[in-house]
Amino acid sequence: MWGRWFASVLWVSLLFTGVSQANGGWVIEREEKTKSPLFKNSKSIANQLTPEQKELQAVASTYIKALDSYRDEIRSHWPNGEVSSKTRWVSYSANWDAKRVVDFEHNRVEISVENKTKGQRIDFASLSKEVRGHVEEVIGTRVSDAVNSDPINRAVNQKLAELGAEKMNPSGELVLPELFKTPNPSERDIRARAMSLMKGASIRYQTLSASLAAMPIKTNNKITYVIPLPDNRMRKKVKEYAPLVRKHAEKFSLAEDIVMSIIHTESHFNPLARSHVPAFGLMQIVPSTAGRDATRKLFKKSKLLSARYLYNPKKNIEVGAAYLNVLYYDYLKGIENPESRLYYSIAAYNAGASAAARAFINKASFKEALPVINRMKPEEVLNRILTKLPRKETRQYVEKVLKRRGFYRRV
């Protein structure tokens, strides 16, 4: 989501080895590639950057360093060093003996702990009690606490604050408020809900049953409980966000079903969503690019938004809707057919306006692709996007958004 100045900064890719465009910015595809001397020794190039480009570089650099540091720390306790992503909120207990994940895409909680044994058998009673305690902690966590306790978020927010980002506290609501009848459940409510969820738990995709009491002890001393979340959780989440989506869709002359489909595809309604761009929140906003474009529309002047600001669902949907308006009505207004422009806008939201041009011409130039697009029928434009875009991720992204649009039209 680079907007009209995307092409002018194409050469900044020299600063990053192994980088591609997606979700509003440069994607560092493999962490080991950040060791590139081009990335470390870029002072002469940095002196030629615009303020916004320097800002983007500073935030990306801070993110990468914090990511590497946190993963190194995790790997001393957990092999794969997993951190939070767009669809998975990952946290660890204070003493590192438990890994806790909410998988928003697959609608489940995963709790990994040290295996417990009693003689030559697994001690399921003790394990279940420990796991239930972690489930209580997960479902009782508020967005603000989750954001502030993540070392990567703390580092990025500190850098954004140094750069003058708009200050705002993240949302005080629960990460999973849809599990409760009230926004402020009591400890008793949380305990009861955790006990109810544990009834559907499984271990390594095997249903818990009495027959597993004699299951041999694995050489791997970690064991993972998979706890399904209620089937209607997603519908409740859609219902929760529907008024906000409707309000901002009307304000910015957008289709509600498109906004909702983009939220679903970007984050699966995870308020803590974070990609490796880095982009933040429900609609995956990059502060230095889409965020600045949106604030020009919202506040009549460019503002840098903090990650904390974008982790507030209400603000994130407002910023995302404003950016979609800028994209569709300003940057891509040269596409004459409204339906063709919609298809291109969806692709551009994920890959950038210039990168999406590669489906039509052999270069990243929206300006040069425009005459080609305007000679095509809408179905031809969509077919080109779905079959000719170099990035598989963007092709699938457009397909998912349009497929989900059909569902949200009926909701």
Keywords:
50% helix, six-stranded antiparallel β-sheet, alpha+beta, 3 domains, two-stranded antiparallel ribbon, 411 residues, disordered N terminus, globular, 17 helices, 10 strands
Q: How would you describe what is shown here?
A:
This protein has 411 residues and is an alpha+beta fold. It has 17 helices and ten strands. It has helices at 37-40, 43-46, 51-75, 124-139, 143-149, 151-162, 187-198, 233-251, 256-267, 287-299, 307-310, 313-331, 338-351, 353-356, 366-374, 378-388, 392-410; strands spanning 19-22, 25-28, 88-92, 98-103, 108-114, 117-118, 121-122, 202-203, 206-207, 222-228. Helix 9 (256-267) packs across helix 17 (392-410), helix 10 (287-299) packs across helix 12 and helix 16 crosses helix 17. It is globular.
List the helices and strands and how they pair.
Elements: E1 19-22, E2 25-28, H1 37-40, H2 43-46, H3 51-75, E3 88-92, E4 98-103, E5 108-114, E6 117-118, E7 121-122, H4 124-139, H5 143-149, H6 151-162, H7 187-198, E8 202-203, E9 206-207, E10 222-228, H8 233-251, H9 256-267, H10 287-299, H11 307-310, H12 313-331, H13 338-351, H14 353-356, H15 366-374, H16 378-388, H17 392-410
Antiparallel strand pairs: 1-2, 3-4, 4-5, 5-10, 6-7, 8-9, 8-10
Helix pairs in contact: 3-6, 4-7, 8-12, 9-17, 10-12, 13-16, 13-17, 16-17
